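Worked example (supplementary).
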Amino acid sequence: MADLSIDFAGIKSPNPFWLASAPPTNTGEQIMRAFDAGWGGAVWKTLGEPVVDTSSRFGAIEVGGQRMVGFNNIELITDRPLEVNLREIREAKRRYPRHAVIVSLMVETQDDWRTIIQQVEDTGADALELNFGCPHGMCERGMGSAVGQEPEVLKTVAGWAVESASIPVLVKLTPNIGDILEPGVAAVEAGAHGLSLINTIKSITGVDLDRMVPYPVVGERSTNGGYCGPAVKPIALHMVAALARDPRVTIPISGIGGISTWRDAAEFIALGASSVQVCTAVMHRGFRIVEDLCDGLSHFLDSKGMRSVAELRGKALGAYVEWGDLDLSYKVSAHVDPAKCIGCELCLVACRDASVDAIHTGPVPLAAGHVAATRDQAIARAAGSGVHVTWVDETACTGCNLCSHLCPVPGCITMKDVTGGKPFESWNDRIAKGTHKAGHHG
Amino acid sequence: MSATPLPQGRLEQQLEDGKPLYTEGEAVAEAHRCLFCHDAPCITACPTGIDIPRFIRKIGTGNLRGSAQTILSANLLGYSCARVCPVEVLCAGACVYNAWERTPIAIGRLQRYATETLFAQGEAGTLLPRAAANGKRIACVGAGPASLAAAGYLALEGCEATVFDRNPLPGGLNTTGVAPYKMPAEGSLREFEFLASLGVRFEGGVEVGRDVPAAKLLADHDAVFLGPGLGGDTTLAIPGAEGAGVQGATAWIERMKLDPTASLAGVTRAIVVGGGNTAIDAARELAQLGVAEVSLLYRRTQADMSGYAHELEAARAEGVRFVERAVPAAFVRENSVLKALRLSDGREFPCELVVLAIGQASLAALAQAFPDVATDAKGRIVVDAETGATGNAKVWAGGDATGGELVVTGVQDGKRAARAIAKALGIPVRDDAPMLAGHGTVRT
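After joint prediction of all chains, the assembly is encoded as:
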């Protein structure tokens, strides 16, 4: 069995799965139940001046019957008295000494930071996370993403915290910026010990078309909230990877954004995350999902012969390059398995309407010189069964991948490597050779 | 549900809806399973050519009105078809999920959801806009699906369309013959209200050829559509056939559905003779109504049956005993009371009721009352397959009287005839006329 334990900037955790600072980490009771369920750590819901929240607070999008593919909230930081939170943090850490207890903070002045950091350190908490990401409500008060969107301000405020703290300081970044490297590098320069990202994305999930009020509805009004859930994973993955591969970023990263399964977590780790944080999936299905997060990741590491999470970390990072460094000689071609095709023709219509019209059904003619390996088989099965089995004109196929993504039958459309030993050549290579201009036939 | 009150205490009211109306959640979940196939085989398999993926997608997006429009344009009787069509051998049987060994989309239930919900909201009458009156008068003989479709499509283009039926209730077999677990009579009458809202007029209790001469019908109208269906049940010319306890299947089913005096008191053993879907329906109905022993007797083997395998399977699951190679020889009576049915091989099946589902007579005489309308050796009206035209330039025909078997094929017959009638009478047909939707569009 692979070792799932991690050491994140000195923060020890039995596994890389932490609860993100959010409603599931509002109280000690919740966090201790989460630890019992198997969570390795938790980031306590942001402490600061207690707030008043609205009713309602959450919006969600459903896609094709799949609930909460995207989720947003307009909830603020903790609404509980500081001393209650501090007492419960102390209790949780005392009862779960092996688990990571990280406390999220958001206050205004340098004095505020110094005071609250001292109070939190007194509880025995393992680390601090500075909430520079909240994109709603708090930012209107000059905190949260208002800090995270200004690298110089971020650097100053993070510097105050680092200066006051004797335990590791993580800076949580907002994605609501042009280039994630700017706040990320600013946090490193401020002396932060780790980065957490992404916080939520400024968003409106939808509109109540009867009341003509956006979601979530608060009386006759609404406001923009923070977007999260499975739909944001690609944005988060990119930002984590962009930081992880930058040589200036020398501190560990806690990946956040749409992580619901062990596979999502493995992807974040493969792109450079040292730990991952989860919220929406827990809000959707409860703390119990951690069992499969750990179990699935462990089996995956075993299957790849990796003995620890650290061995997986950054494994895919080297393959993340600029477009100009991609191999233009590489060529794949779609292949429809005639035995598996059910004849829905979604590939055919997609290729025709959105690509190069390289997928056909029935005995339509094949252009002279073109290759279509499964044409005869497809036509024969279609004739025998009435199923509209499709086939691919491999010569016309550009290998765009669209059909393989939309085919409903797993394993029916695969992309076959037809590079045929052509040597590697990137756009940058062509520029170097001067063969990149249109019309040049090399 | 219906504005036309039916008496209470009818046997069919004891039977439960076999496929109840979906809730919104169920409908949307099922709609999302649909792959929205290109060149979808379900459309090809639908005799009326409803754009099934399109109406299902509209259910999924919450556009129920658009969904019902899509259905009802191509099939004005899309509501009853949703409930009575043998989808297993039509649209759902063609669903690509079958090739994947997965449960096909419940197309019939989704179609019912869209149409019934619109009916219930009272909005069906505004779904399909009508053209201005064109002064043309159309008579349809028989008020079953074929006639109602022809009348409805022509009424939408501005014709004055009247449907005549000897039965006081409209709907034909949809009202008198559909298995109650598929659709009770109220459903058919509710559908007629929709058709009436399109302008279809109904003259019930009027038998053409007796109450109204064919010549007068022809003289009073610009075109006549014959959709009279079939006549009485075929009887068995064997000893003991006369007397209580022996009934024709369509007559018995009609009483079970509509006559509050119909009863199964004293019947614990019933026999249905026949191998078609009417026979299986009758057997399932008897079993569901609590007759302890129901036997379905067929003279040949299962492979020779015209009844659907899935229906026979359902009948067996409900306890119906299926007996192959059973040729009736005599009804055994004591003091004229039916005691058993004896077969040609000597076997005897004790029973109190025998329902004969071995066919129906044709209404050839009715057809022949119209000059130049020909019938074939089986009494079926001879028509042009594409248009429903007969030998009389003012008469078209369709439905069971021309050899059809299903509600949905009758509807398509009526729609094709409506197109042909519009063309023959020079009626302007709008580009988006519902009669042009679905299969076999022939622009005028």
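Two points are worth noting when inspecting this output. Chain B has three domains: 11-126, 137-231+361-436, 246-356. Residues 246-356 of chain B form a domain with the FAD/NAD(P)-binding domain fold (CATH 3.50.50.60).
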